[in-house]
Design a protein that fits this description.
By secondary structure, the chain is mainly alpha-helical. It has eight helices and two strands, in the order αββααααααα.
Amino acid sequence: MKNTAKIIRMVQMALLAALVLVLQLMGSFIKIGPLPMSFVLVPIVIGAFILGPKEGGILGLIFGIITMVMGISGVDAFSALLWTANPVWFVAICILKATLAGLGSGLIYKGLDKLFKGKFITLRTVLASVSAPIINTGIFVIGMLLFFFDTMTGMAEGTEYKTAVGFIFLGLAGVNFIGEFLVNLVLSPAIVRIIDVINKRTKRV
């Protein structure tokens, strides 16, 4: 029984990792401004809720690595620009923001589960789900302000944003964050249903 449950978890993790890969590659062609939409956060939070915060962090790490590779290879033009400007901090931000988005949402879900003693699954799922884009975008913004300010200043010139701060918050993070936030918010009921079905099937094993 234990071996069966372990195999099921491994299969779930593999499927979610594959979904992260596919959605990130597809998302690179769906952009709001220079940044791709991170539909990939959805399977990451599902993994974090079903399998645990550590697994959510691993799925986030996979997301970060894919983003990094796309920048280094030049597939994503904006990421490639960051890679050229400051390779070390580009890699650090890619890995950190994605990993913490998965880990953080899982920890929040777990903490709310204990706080509410297993009740209010919809509420805690919604709160934990929307935390992923908040963490992901928040770390991105901090990274841009601290380590890519000059690069953002150059990109802002000749645009309606005029300053690096305006470009970062409005041109990059603003609309993109709202899109990611709404995607996770709208799909939260579906995530609740997925978790409920998987938990019931797991208990039968």
